[in-house]
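Exam revision sheet. Question 4 asks you to relate a sequence to its structure. Input first:
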Amino acid sequence: MNLLCSRFQLKTSLGLGVVFLFIHGGAIFCVYFTFIFWAVKIALIFFSLISLIIIIKTYVFRNVTYAIIEFGPNVGVDSSWYLKKYSGDVVIGFINYPVFVSNHLIIVNFVLVDKRLKISVPISRDSLTIEEFRKLKVFLRTN
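Answer key, structure tokens:
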């Protein structure tokens, strides 16, 4: 599938927010009912809430400087992709297979060229338009 002209702009994803809220809520529930010292419980619950806030800002609202808000294939360059951050910085990376592709969620792993870092970008169905989500899903399943 040809994605040379595609540009994927990620929107706010309430679906991912619900998933992250459910996961962190479950962790807090488990910590609360575990038989450990109360100070440790408070610390673990506090760190779970901080983690939830950071994840929601990064992957749901995408309003922190390092959050990926747009990505797409580089035209004329072999199999590299550009990733635009909220801060406006653009980094170049390659898709690191395997990727997770389902009907409701795609998780694409990128390896950045300059820094040799790996970045995972979770994309829910409400982050993109229906057509963009379908294009990306078909491309990732066939490559």
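Marking note for examiners. The chain has a mean pLDDT of 91.
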